[in-house]
Every structure is written in C-alpha cells, then in structure tokens.
Fold each of these.
Amino acid sequence: MESEADMRRYFAILFFALFAIVPFFIGSVQASSFHPQSSGSTETPQAPSPEVLIPGAILYDRWYAALGKEAPSGNMPIWSRQSTNSRSGPDTWRCVECHGWDYKGVEGAYSSGSHMTGFPNIRKLVAGMEVTEIIAHLHGSKDPAHDFSKYMDDATLNNLAQFLKYGLIDDDQYIDDISLKVKNADVDHGRQLYNQTCAACHGADGMLIVFHTEGINEYLGSVANRDPWRFLHRTRFGVAGADMPVGAKLGWTTEDGRDVLAYAQTLPAGLAIPSPEPASSNATPSTLVGGPPAKTIFGGIFTGLGSVLVICLGSVIFLGLLLGIGALVVSALRKR
C-alpha cells in the first residue's frame, strides 16, 4: 500500500512540475524565434527622391511659409520649457529654431548665444527611429505638446519625417565649428559651380541680392561666413517661396554644396545695415531699392554728390514753374 501511495505522490509531483515548466519552455522558444517586422524587409531602405527630401527640408526651415500659411498664433507650446531664447511668435514654431541648421540642437551651434534653447540633437534623436515612429512623434505620441497634425496633413508630415530620417548630414565633416570655415573644400570647383548656377542671380561678387536676417541686411558672402550651416542647408534644398536652383535637383552631392560654400566665403561680406521687419511671418523682403550701398568711400562721395545735384535740379525746375505761373498771372492782370 505504501508503495502504491508513493507512486501516486511521485506522479502527482511529476505532473505539477511538467505543468509549471512547459509554459516557460514554450515562451522561451517563441521569444527566441521572434523578430520585429518594422519595415517588412531585411534590406536597408533606400533614401527617398529629391521630390520628397526637398519639401521636407523646406518644412524644417519654415513649414508654415512652405504651406503658404501664417504661423499659428502665440508661441509653440514647448517653447515655455526654455528661458534662454527670447524670440516669440512665428520663430518658435520653426523646427530649425529648436534644433539648429546643423541639426545638433544644444550640442551644436545653438549650444550658446541668442538661439540657445536646450532642445535636443535631432540627428541623434531620429537615428534609432523608423519613419513611421518619427511621424507618430510629430502626431504627439510621445509629447502632446509636439503635435503638428493640427497644421500638417499626413503626406506633409511624411515629407518632413523622410527628410529627418534621410536628409540630415553630419556638418562636422564639412564645417569647423570654431572658425566656421569649410573643411577640405575644393574652392576652384566651388567657383565653377557658383559661376554656372548662382552668379546669374547673386552677381559675380554675391552682392546683387541683399538678404534680410533678423533685422539686418547682408550679402551672400556675409551669410556664408556668419552662418555656414544655414548656407549649406539652403544650397542643398532651397528656401520656401524662392525660385532658385536647388542642389538636390541639380544632382549636386553634399561635397558640391560644401565647395560652393567655401567659394562663397571668399566673396565680399560688406556691411550689415538695418532693415525693416517683413509684413508677415512668411513674407520675403524684396531687394533693396537702388541695389547695395557704395562699396568704397569715393563711391559714397559720388553717390552723395549725385543726390545733391538731383535735389538742386528739382528745386530749380520747381522754382522755374512757379515763376512761369506768376508771369502768366501778371500778364493776364495787365491786359485787364
């Protein structure tokens, strides 16, 4: 009897042991055979076409202008989380104002100065994310205050996400963050590209168009030397509302843009002069009337003398007209 009871106990213990072990065994097998299906393919996704990257890059620059809209009223909700950047209104809604033209946020050019916000390095942030995850983030999945779906449809958010995933570059390879000079550039090649593509609008010396930037007017050489990251971004992808050749459409590589930037840094920088603010948040100020100011002291003297002569000539003509009218009136009175 005891042996039969022992056998029953043995089988009962064995049954409960198997009941406890089998689920763990099945679970471990399933876990070891699971592979995330994030992209549906083991192949590395190809970068999107320029037709996708260019709109995305322009959205990163100033998305509301790219869409032909006014910026939302007030400040972007996240803006209140920082206190170092005193800008307000439309600028607070721009991706670039938080994450910089070098895409490094607080780790890059915006680690200090008036543009500093403390917001993160966007290149690092998206490095481990799929495009679908970036879009979800732009929908506010991780932070409701970062929800842009109220202002951009899914196709537009996809363009922005594609640029963030595939269009960002490591500017440290091209620009020295201390001297702001270009690294390892072929200036002669940049000169050729500039003369072929850019000089027709900007002029051989880069002073034909005057740019408005935060209350000052400056020339192309000024932009290239003061903010090379912005120059390179816009050389590659263009500017919202501006009809200009775009490197990505021309088949330029990033190195081609780097070479053009290096040549532009050799152009005259000129003097920054005050400029009125644009009428709206996405307006592009027109070129200064009369072109850029005189480049030399003699040019300034001749310009001033010309202005005096014009004023004197106008005054003589005006006085002549007054005397003529007076003579006619006197002659009419005498005839009476």
Amino acid sequence: MPDRPGPGFGRTAVAALPDRPAVLDDAAVAALLPERSPRGHKGSFGKLLVIAGSLDYAGAALLVARSAGRAGAGLITLAVPESLQPLFAARVLEATTMALPEDDVEEIDPEPALARILDHEHDALVVGPGLRPGLATTELVRSLLTVAGEADEIDAAPIVLDAEALRSMATMDRWWDGVRRPAVLTPHPGEFARLRAGSDGPIADDGDVSSDDDARLAAARSAAETWGSVVVLKGARTIVAAPDGAAAIAPFENPALATGGTGDVLAGAIGSLLAQGLAPFDAARLGVYLHGLAGDAVRERLGDAGLLASDLPDGLAIARKRLAAIAERKGGGKRLGFAALGPRSEPGREADPAAVPTAAPAPAPTSAPDATRDVR
C-alpha cells in the first residue's frame, strides 16, 4: 500500500531517550480492548454515571455522555442539578438523566446529592466537565474522592476527574490522603500546574509541561506517584502515568484538537472504558489512543482548523473497530469491539499481545505542529 497521510498522519516519531516509555501504537493498544461477548446485553458492557453540566456549560455534559456511548458503554446516566434536568432530558436520546438535589438554583446540595449518587447503580463515574464552580461543587468532589458509603476500597467504582473537579481539588489540602477510590485525572497543563501548586509541601519545579516532553513525562510520573492515581497530562503527545512509575506517551500532535470540548470527549471515552471493566491505566491509555485516532481522522478531512468536539464521538467507534480487527486477527475471532464477526476462537484461548501485528509507523512531518497546543 503506498504511503499516504491517512489516519495517524498527525503522529510524530519520538526519539528514544533514557527512561522513556514506549510510544503507544496500534498493536499495543489493540491488546487492551475489552471483550464484547456475542451474548452480551446493555448491562454487560458497563454502567457509567456522569456528574457534569451547568446552564453555561451544558454542552460539556452532552459531549461526555455521547462519547461514552460511542466508546462502548452499555448504559449511561447523566446526573445534573434538578432545576436543569428538563433541559438535559430534552437533549439526550440514549442516556438517561438523574436529578441531583439543590440548595439554590443550579447549586447542588452536596450531602443529599452524594446519597443519591451512591444509591444509583454504576460501574464507573465521570465527574467535573461543565460543573458550576463553588463551595458546593468542591464539597461534592471531596466526598466522591473517598469510598465512604461503599463496601470497601476494592469494590469502589473508579472515577474520572476532569475540568471543574480538578479545579476544586486544587483548593483542597492533601486531597489524595486517606482511603480513596481508583481515579484517573485528566488535566491540561494549566490544570496540572494548579494541582501541583496546591499540593502540600514545596512547589514542584516541573519545568515546561506544555512543550517539553521530558519535563512532561517526569512531572506526570511524579504527580501520579504522589497522588496515587493515574494521570493523563493532555497536550501534544499526551502522557499517561501510573502510580507505580509505568508510563506511556501517545504519538499524536494535532492542532485541530485545540478547541473547546475535546477534553470532555476524552473524559467520556476513558470513563466508558472504566465502566467496561478496564483497569485505570489501561482505560486511560486506550481512551487517549482512540481519541487521538478520531482526531486524526477529522484532521484528514478538515485540516488543522475547524474541528468541532462533536465531530469526535463517532470517530471513537470507528477507531475501536479498527483496533478490534487487529486484535481479532491474532485472537482467532475473539470479539473485542465492533469489527465484523469472524470465526469463533477456541474456548479459553487468549490473545498474545506481543504477537499482534504492528501498524507501520507514520512518517514524521517536515514541520511538527506547535506542541504547546493542548486538548481543552
């Protein structure tokens, strides 16, 4: 097949440096796809609860819900302030809505809201996109970080923390202490800097976490270890870091993604994969890669400008289908995504990730896009 700037043409080669993690590629990420049983039903593929949205930022919540569905979640519930529930119920088709009690118009009452959230069956949470800033939001986020009201830390539903949730956490002293649920934090460089500055102790000298890949990697690893959570440091060549020091770097540099709402799509994708049973580090790596592939596909059609966040969710499903086809070729037809049904695998046969065919790397562009642009 001749070389062409197809999906992935926004990727760049990353030079091998000491202690550099492997760059994510099709083969590595395809092995992370959760199985899709041919006898599955909507309850089999994860229940995601999204706590997001306000009158000024209604679109953020809608983008999270749509992208979660396109990434494969079986059931999605959008929890919003009760005064806004009619607005959101009129806009969503596949997701259901849940009213959260208020103590003022659009102001969530944290204690009864928490009780309603914990009483609602869910496998994972996304918290933050489009929430109204304020003390009530901060208290709700603080309560959701812990596992109070749930069986124990092991059984606690994992959580994606984005946008206003991260800004709220930056005001809390040592929010990472105590028994907490598994979490994926998805800050852009500005949010990341606020979280680091708000950490108790000397302010970390992280360097340029927008455009210096080495500084981004070191800072993300340090933060993940300190906070005990998976950190997705967004931007050109997004970094995914785990508390145990494991890390991965995405190959994508795509200035078309530097537009409002694209980060909400990423949060929905990662939350969806958590709900489908992936571990936080796996869900973050797969979500970042699907998001990058979807962005590259839109960039191929529209160029470096003009992408809308609402262009991305459908691309998540297409990207997942592509990765599923790669994994199924190795797995003898094991259903991992939305690819065409192939021969049934032998009972108990598992895919060997190391033997999944590796996609040919895309050629590096002659002039790389501005790496300081980040996913918002």
Amino acid sequence: MICRKVKMARIKMNNEYRTKICNIARNSFENNTFNSKRENYFQQLEKVKSEYPKHFDLAKTIVQRAYPKEHCDTLQYFKTLYGSPCDVVAKDSCYYFAYTDEDAVDENGKPKVNQKHFDFKLNGSLNGSEYNHDNDFAYAYYRQELKDNDLNADINIEQENNQQNPHLQKHTDANTKFLGLGNRSEDNTNLARDFNDQFTCDVIGTSYCRSRAIPCTKDEFSQMETFLIMKSKLVQTHQEWIRGIFEDTKDIKSALKSYRYLDEGIELANSTFKALSLNNSLIEESQIIRTNSTGLVMYNPQNVADRIAQRNEAKLTREEKIALYREQQQSNIN
C-alpha cells in the first residue's frame, strides 16, 4: 500500500471567521488579570461597595440633625389624622448640603456659602449638580450583572464618539429597562429600586432639595465631596479599562481585514496572546471553523472533496487501478 502525505488546502478567511477571532480576543483581553487597568476597576468597585454605606451614614447624621426623627414621626402621625394638608414628610436619597466658610468671602464681601447636591441614587449626579444625571455609574457598578444577562454595560464607552445612532439607543434602552432606571413606574422594579431603597431617610418639606439646603460643617462637606470623587473614579476606571480593550480589539480587527487565510488570523491572535502571557487563550482552527449540529467540522467543500479523493487514490496500487479500468471498459461494452 502506498502512503501519500495529504496536502490540505489553506482555509480562506471570511467575515464570520474574523468576527469569531475578534470575539475571542475581546473576551481574552477582558479576562486578562495582568491588566493593571482591569485591576484598578475591580479595586475601585470593591471600595465603592464598602464605603457607599459609610458615606450615607454621614449624610443621614446631617439630615437627622436638621430634621430630627421624632419631628418626622410626629408629622407622620398628623398626616394619618388630617391627610394631605400634613403631607410634608417624605423619604429621599438626595440632599443639598451647605456650609458657610468664614475664612473666605464672595464677590459681595460676605462669608462664602459652599453648597452641593449629594445624590445616593444609582443614577445620581457625579459632580454635585442637581440636574446632572447619567447612567455611567450604574453601568460600572452593575457591569457583571448586565453582562450575565447578555447586555452591554460598555456601550457608552464604545460609542462615546458616536452618540446619536440606533445601535447605541437599542442597548441603552435594554440596559435602562433591566436596571429599572426608566421614568415609567413599571420599569422601577429592579436593581435601581433595590439599590436606592438602601439609602433613604425622612426629610421635611415639599419643595425640591435645592430650596431646602441642609447645613453641615466644613469637615462634613469635605467628607461628602470624597463620596462624589469615589463615584466618579469608578466610572473613570471603567472607562480607562474598556477603552484600552476596545482599542486593542480594533487593532486586531483592522489587521484581520488584510489577511486572506484563516491561519494568518490565528497566528495574529496567538502571537498577541503570547505577548500578553495569555497562553490559556491560544486558539486553533477547529475553534474558528463552523461546526454542524453533530459537532463535525465543516470545511470548504472543495477542500473536503480534494482530501477524500486523495485518500482514496492513495489506497489503490497501479495494478488495482488497471483492473478497475478494465472492469469499467468491459461494463461499457456489455
């Protein structure tokens, strides 16, 4: 029997293979524990989870000093007796704190009053403005939960230079619904409600919080400002980490466009993984080539035909080929 080495045709690259390689690369970059930006994000996330309640405890102390609990309880009692005319107590999670700095003066020569909005809601302000709300903190805080539900917590970062497009809107709408950040009452039934309910206390007054600035000390105000800094830093570390991954994946995607064969794309990915010490991410053609429902590899049809023909040809001796030819000729005569 003659054994011949079968030469396999190289598999041509296509858009499906490029997408699969990019997705594998993206996932590998995300799970790269050697990435300092990734570590910064997770450290800040743990800090936020640990210190958020502590900052609220301080805020609650300031609020209850201005609105003592016994006063709130008394007003709630009158409400039960007289209804809406006494409806002046409500739970809130955003507070306008202010202190007078005797060592500084404003443009009128009066002691300077410093005041800022501190919002404990999931989509609360990051800069102390009452009117500044976005979902970046919520996406960073609940990134894993969003990802586990096939939602994109990184969409604002990926689309930060293209803020008006249907793709962005589709993902932000899905995130908003899942988190419960919508204005509709039926949306407020998920993570946002559970999160916000942890950080509420009674306040007296029916107006917006700006009109009821709550006095605090300079030290308390300074500590509350670290709360805003902490929230902003979580958003910042999330953005820095994902921007790096996004740029790395873009480089892979751009390079793949110039390759004609699958093995070139795999070599590119594996070279990158080795450079990043991601040896567990190394890929083979079998991971990229489409498989059917039975798990069998589906190669290019011509490639399959050529290999089968070569294998069968290799099993025939010269004498067997002559005999087969004579049988076919005799069959034609008959």
